[in-house]
């Protein structure tokens, strides 16, 4: 069969390293770039002027003037069942879960409801330029079947799992250590490594899992060494107090997971807002990742994530929207909130670091940087086209700006879904504004 080659032309930016350590060597930027895709994978990326003469004449070129192409955004923590209860008023974490989240998740026992929400959710991801996400389902295995079926239909690289939760939640949402083990195992065998789908063992957080259930989660990771672990960690001070009561023998919050063998290079912990030096060190030495969720941390009043501290300890970090604790599906908006969180910490989140975190940094946090995250030859061609003229204000603000860092900063400060002109999956147009 002959190769299918397509090309997209616009300004082009991608990262090969973390700008915090590699500076200007961390990225490649072509003001007039060309991205060449062969059979759904990156073939080449570079200056249009040099590359156009090399293209066969039969290849069609999609040209986006006044736009920037970057790798697709990676959301390292989000809850698809919370799509319909985003923007719920007035509470911090534990009361918010009880008042809004658990009742909303109850409805996912019905597969047709799960399908409906999965569809809205995936449309919303693509509208926002998010091409890969690490996703919470509910306790119902049906919620994961619905999500993976829809993601598979769209050829998406997605990671998801069924919530494991056997206490401290309404009776109607509880499983048991044994049923959660069996259901997760069945789902792993059904979905993990099918096309672009991957499974995450998903104990909600240590409050809602008994020691017996956390041990079952550890057993699943032993039996299926290439699945993920996805949970919450040290988000809110009342949550941390309750952890102390429930696990009086644990050294700290992370130790609860550590003693059940849940840390490792495919383990992603959402939040990590209140972590001591020892916990940061332990995350780093086990290759575990944190998901930085600034929109959620501000909305739920949880606290201010310390990105500089994580850089110092060498902890892997990706960006998470944490919808519906977070208030936007947009990673641009989430980065804007991330900048403000850093301001309140007396730190600066540079625009280059921001785009790194939303692309290659997220891929590294998900241990997927051999497949996605930048435009290295052979990677899966998921990318986004961002519009420098998306709104009258963005257009006006950028009219005389040539500096790429300044353009990126304006996009994260003023941009949202409106800035996404198109989203491509495996080289195919999947969304157009
Ligand atoms: N901790 C336990 N469950 C949740 C949840 O659904 N959202 C957030 N933000 N934190 C949690
Ligand atoms: Zn969450």
Automatic annotation (TrEMBL):
Residues 69-429 form the Amidohydrolase-related domain. InterPro entries: Amidohydro-rel (IPR006680), Guanine_deaminase (IPR014311), Metal-dep_hydrolase_composite (IPR011059), Metal_Hydrolase (IPR032466), Metallo-dep_hydrolases (IPR051607). Transmembrane segments: none annotated. GO terms for biological process: guanine catabolic process. Its EC number is 3.5.4.3. The keyword ATP-binding does not apply. Pfam families: Amidohydro_1 (PF01979). Pathway: Purine metabolism; guanine degradation; xanthine from guanine: step 1/1. It catalyses: guanine + H2O + H(+) = xanthine + NH4(+). Binds 1 zinc ion per subunit. One of its GO terms (cellular component) is cytosol. GO terms for molecular function: guanine deaminase activity; zinc ion binding. SUPFAM superfamilies: Composite domain of metallo-dependent hydrolases, Metallo-dependent hydrolases. PANTHER family: GUANINE DEAMINASE. Belongs to the metallo-dependent hydrolases superfamily. ATZ/TRZ family. This is Guanine deaminase. It comes from Spartinivicinus marinus.
């Amino acid at each position: 069969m002959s190769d299918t080659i397509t090309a997209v032309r616009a300004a082009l930016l991608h990262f090969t390293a973390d700008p915090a350590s590699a500076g200007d060597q961390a990225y490649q930027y072509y003001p007039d770039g060309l991205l060449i895709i062969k059979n759904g994978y990156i073939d080449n990326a570079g200056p249009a002027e040099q590359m156009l003469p090399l293209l066969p004449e039969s290849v069609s070129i999609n040209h986006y003037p006044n736009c920037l192409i970057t790798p697709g955004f990676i959301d390292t923590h989000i809850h698809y069942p919370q799509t319909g209860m985003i923007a719920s008023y007035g509470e911090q974490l534990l009361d918010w879960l009880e008042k809004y989240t658990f009742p909303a998740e109850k409805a996912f026992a019905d597969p047709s409801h799960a399908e409906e929400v999965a569809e809205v959710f995936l449309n919303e991801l693509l509208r926002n330029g998010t091409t890969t996400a690490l996703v919470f389902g509910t306790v119902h295995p049906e919620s994961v079947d619905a999500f993976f079926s829809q993601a598979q239909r769209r050829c998406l690289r997605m990671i998801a799992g069924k919530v494991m939760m056997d206490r401290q939640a309404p009776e109607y949402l509880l499983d048991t250590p044994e049923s959660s083990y069996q259901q997760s195992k069945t789902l792993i065998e059904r979905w993990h490594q099918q096309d672009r789908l991957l499974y995450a063992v998903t104990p909600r957080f240590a409050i809602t899992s008994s020691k017996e259930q956390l041990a079952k989660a550890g057993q699943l990771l032993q039996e299926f060494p290439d699945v993920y672990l996805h949970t919450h960690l040290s988000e809110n001070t009342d949550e941390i107090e309750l952890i102390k009561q429930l696990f009086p023998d644990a050294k700290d919050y992370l130790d609860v997971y550590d003693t059940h063998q849940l840390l490792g290079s495919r383990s992603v912990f959402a939040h990590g807002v209140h972590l001591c030096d020892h916990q940061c060190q332990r995350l780093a030495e086990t290759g575990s990742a944190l998901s930085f969720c600034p929109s959620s941390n501000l909305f739920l009043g949880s606290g201010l994530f310390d990105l500089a501290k994580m850089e110092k300890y060498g902890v892997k970090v990706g960006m998470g929207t944490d919808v519906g604790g977070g208030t936007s599906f947009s990673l641009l908006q989430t980065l804007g909130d991330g900048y403000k969180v850093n301001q309140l910490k007396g730190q600066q989140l540079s625009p280059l670091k921001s785009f790194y975190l939303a692309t290659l940094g997220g891929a590294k946090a998900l241990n997927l940087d051999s497949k996605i995250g930048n435009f290295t030859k052979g990677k899966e061609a998921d990318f986004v086209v961002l519009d420098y003229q998306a709104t009258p204000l963005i257009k006006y603000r950028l009219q005389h700006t040539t500096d790429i860092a300044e353009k990126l900063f304006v996009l994260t400060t003023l941009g949202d879904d409106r800035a996404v002109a198109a989203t491509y999956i495996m080289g195919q147009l999947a969304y157009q504004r």
